[in-house]
Amino acid sequence: MKLIIINGPNLNLLGKREPEVYGSKTFEDYFSELQFKFKNTQLEYYQSNIEGELIDKIQEVGFDYDGIILNAAAYTHTSVGIGDAIKAITTPVVEVHISNTFSREEFRHQSYISPVAKGVILGFGLNSYDLAITSFLL
Ligand code: DQA
């Protein structure tokens, strides 16, 4: 099983970015925990703040990986391009958010990812990623 976590803009700042919303752990530390927990799963991690780079990565992995766990962050709410990229590939995508976007500002209730995702997991803090990985192993 080969999975990749793709994180969008500002998620490189996890640990110091609005810790009351996103927690105080860096993603690098959390990713090491995930690799330890899911030893039998090939797990990769990619982050970019640039929309086109996220689309390039989705295209690159989107025909031979078993799954993509995507937190497109702010681009979730704006990016027709990322939605189209997900439509174009064959690898299933699970959309993830750390926070419960539906309990936040109205503009975060709209997602260009949800209609083309296999499923959506949000609001469980960093554990949302763990649950998304688990969903591919069921
Ligand atoms: C987020 C929620 C988005 O609305 C926000 O722009 C983010 C992070 C989350 O994981 O909770 O950057 O995707």
Automatic annotation (TrEMBL):
Pathway stated in the Swiss-Prot or TrEMBL entry: Metabolic intermediate biosynthesis; chorismate biosynthesis; chorismate from D-erythrose 4-phosphate and phosphoenolpyruvate: step 3/7
Domain of life: Bacteria
Site residues (Transition state stabilizer), renumbered to this chain: R17
SUPFAM superfamilies reported in the protein's UniProt record: Type II 3-dehydroquinate dehydratase (SSF52304)
Annotated active site: Y22 (proton acceptor), H97 (proton donor)
Record field: catalytic activity: 3-dehydroquinate = 3-dehydroshikimate + H2O
EC number: 4.2.1.10
MF terms in GO: 3-dehydroquinate dehydratase activity
Keyword hit for Lyase: yes
Keywords: Amino-acid biosynthesis, Aromatic amino acid biosynthesis, Lyase
Gene3D superfamilies: Dehydroquinase, class II
Family assignment from sequence similarity: Belongs to the type-II 3-dehydroquinase family.
Job description of the protein: Catalyzes a trans-dehydration via an enolate intermediate.
Protein name: 3-dehydroquinate dehydratase
Biological source species: Croceivirga radicis
Gene name for this UniProt entry: aroQ
